[in-house]
Write a structure and sequence with these properties.
Blueprint (H helix, E strand, L loop, with lengths): L3 H11 L4 E5 L6 H8 L7 E8 L4 E7 L2 E3 L1 H8 L4 E2 L3 H8 L17 E4 L6 E5 L5 E6 H7 L3 E3 L2 E3 L2
Parallel strand pairs: 3-6, 6-9
Antiparallel strand pairs: 1-8, 2-3, 2-5, 4-10, 7-8
């Protein structure tokens, strides 16, 4: 696999997507990453790899201060069972380590489901490598990947 940051840049360029890659100290949590970037946790969008029962995957994009609502996501996807894969399967499905996963440049292009709360925002997300964040206009990302936008999250806790 090529350098993950190179993969991200190449994939973004191929789709006409303007991104900013920003180096930052390695963070141990989303909250810590947000503090390092000087943005609220909601400004970081988690890219979660979700496994379907047929061993295919999808990406769920959820604001950092929220969690996946499994009933909502199952309803939008139209399936009865979804789960988070272990880190080894997530790496195999995307080519990215957990904590760095981004749909841009994934080794396989899985469908993307974006929480409606990110629409109209400039978001930060994983950049494919530890110690980096990627900034992008959510609307541009959604359009470039023909993502499905829906209410798929719930408050944490």
């Amino acid at each position: 696999m090529p350098d993950p940051l190179h993969r991200v840049r190449e994939a973004a360029s191929a789709r006409g997507l303007t991104i900013e890659l920003r180096e930052r100290p390695v963070a141990n949590s989303l909250t810590e990453a947000a503090a390092l970037l000087g943005i609220p946790a909601a400004g970081i969008v988690k890219t979660l790899v979700v496994k379907r029962s047929d061993d295919t995957y999808l990406f769920a994009l959820v604001p950092g201060d929220r969690a996946i609502s499994w009933p909502k996501l199952r309803a939008v996807v139209g399936v009865n069972k979804l789960q988070l894969p272990d880190p080894v399967r997530a790496l195999a499905a995307t080519g990215y380590e957990r904590g760095t996963i981004v749909p841009i440049g994934s080794s396989t292009e899985w469908p993307i489901y974006a929480d409606e709360r990110i629409v109209g925002e400039r978001i930060a997300m994983g950049a494919g490598a530890h110690g980096y964040s990627l900034f992008v206009a959510a609307d541009d990302l959604i359009a470039a990947y023909d993502a499905t936008v829906a209410d798929i999250s719930q408050p944490v806790g």
